Amino acid sequence: MAVATTEDVTESRLLLAEYDRIKEEQKTRIGFRDNLLYFTLAASTAVLAITVQSRQAQLLLAVPVICLVLGWTYLVNDEKISAVGCYIRDQLGPRLAELSGADGAVFGWETYHRDDASHTTRKRLQTAVDLFTYLALPMVCVTAFWCSPVVQPLLVIVSLAQTLALAILGWQFLRYAER
Questions:
Q1: Structure-model confidence comparison of residues 84 and 100, the more confident one
Q2: Among 5, 84, 141, 166, which residue has the fewest nearby CB atoms (within 10 Å)?
Q3: Tell me, what DSSP letter sits at residue 134?
């Protein structure tokens, strides 16, 4: 194992190594987050197909559970992805610019891609897709369950708890979208 000398370990090298690691984490989280959306739709579709085949409306209550668990995971990952970008823009980039004596910002992509004219529109459309997937779709399933002839008191209580949890998740999506 090679021993690093103090000339090899500089603050700027450490910061660049940190940048590489957090960009790798961000890339991994982006892939995971995007796959959660597809998995949510696939799992919900499977439950709907089984419900239609079996004619057991109570199975519709599995969709809100899927959407709550995967929606929360999606939201947490999305927040961490944004936090990495914010950290690079606000902390890491300015520190490296100071150390290097750069005239402008370093890691310009971190701000450049956020400044285009369509950024706000894309963010709003993505929020709409997220709300449809993780809130509207499960609420349609809950409503369909409520309209079915097999409504049982215990399952109504479960569905009401799911509705409350979905409202909280939807509020979190909207709250986060404001940033």
A1: 84
A2: 5
A3: I
